[in-house]
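Input/output pair, single chain:
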Amino acid sequence: MLLLITPENDIPNEIELLNSFFEAGLEILHLRKPHKNYAQHMAYLSAIDETYHNRIVLHYQHDLAEDFMLKGIHIQEQPRIDLGEDFGLYVARFTSQGYDVSTSFHNPSEIMLYAQIPLIYNLLSPVFTAISQPNMEGKAFDVNPIKVPVIGMGGVHAKNIGTVKKLGYVGVGVLGGVWNAKNPLVAFKELELNTKQEFKN
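Output:
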């Protein structure tokens, strides 16, 4: 499994690139735009070919998932903590309608605390030193003992996907490995190919 996260700030030709990624086989896009308001999220989603809307997961403005018939929502670490005991109820609000729900962690020991909540997967970072955030030193978390699906993020590129698999992850999440590349589409295709080869079993 390969999921791509959008850059925090818009870049030139971003929508065109996204449509190209989808056309090339991108199955999951995490739309993470913390600086966009509700209307700006609507405009951004409207600009993406609606054929691909069912592959998009929202980090913000979760109510738009229903308006655009998206894949699901992602609840980041701090909002999950802020929800406290209401986290399960918030998740159920979306899973009951058929949406996928995921969340983020930076400490693997916390993941199993939420094992009874029906999350489609959990994002854990940083596995390696992040390309987009080099100040975040990689931890090489081994999640083999964890019995729920975990996606590895942080410093992932085409050459280290095999290591991610050995550490027990079910897939990879990528940001800088694609968007910071000289040719993002070529970088995406290489990542997708390597991910499929490593995670084919």
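The beta strands are 2-5, 28-31, 56-58, 72-75, 100-105, 121-124, 150-153, 171-174. The chain has a mean pLDDT of 94.
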